[in-house]
């Protein structure tokens, strides 16, 4: 059963401080996962880093960090890494 969920919603949000996936943050598309991470970053504590992962290919898609002066996003939006299709 968990394999069916992983193939249907392969994009997950991972909290690097807690070292666990965020519950209920499973997405079908890369764009929705990036949007979900950006929205969730508004409500987390300073110093938290959220990672967008594809669990089928075990790839790190992006990192969103909250700092005292704002947000840090890797890779930068608009770079070639955001436009590549994730296989």
Brief digest:
The chain is built from 3 helices and 5 strands.
Number of domains: 1
Helix/strand order: HEEHEEEH
- Over all CA atoms, what is the radius of gyration? 13 Å
Strand content is 35-45%
Description:
The chain has three helices and five strands. By secondary structure, the chain is an alpha+beta fold. It has one domain (2-76). The protein has a five-stranded antiparallel sheet with strand order 2-1-3-4-5, covered by helices on one side. It is globular, with a radius of gyration of 13 Å. 14% of the residues are buried.
List keywords for this structure.
single chain, 87 residues, alpha+beta, five-stranded antiparallel beta sheet
Strand and helix map with partners:
Elements: H1 2-8, E1 11-15, E2 20-27, H2 30-41, E3 49-54, E4 59-67, E5 70-74, H3 80-83
Antiparallel strand pairs: 1-2, 1-3, 3-4, 4-5
């Amino acid at each position: 059963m968990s394999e069916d969920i992983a193939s249907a919603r392969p994009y997950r949000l991972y909290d690097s401080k807690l070292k666990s996936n965020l519950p209920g943050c499973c997405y079908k598309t890369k764009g929705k996962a990036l949007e979900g991470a950006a929205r969730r970053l508004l409500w987390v504590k300073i110093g938290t880093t959220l990672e967008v992962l594809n669990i089928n290919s075990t790839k790190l898609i992006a990192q969103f960090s909250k700092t005292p002066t704002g947000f840090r996003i890797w890779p930068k939006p608009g770079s070639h890494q955001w436009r590549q299709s994730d296989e």
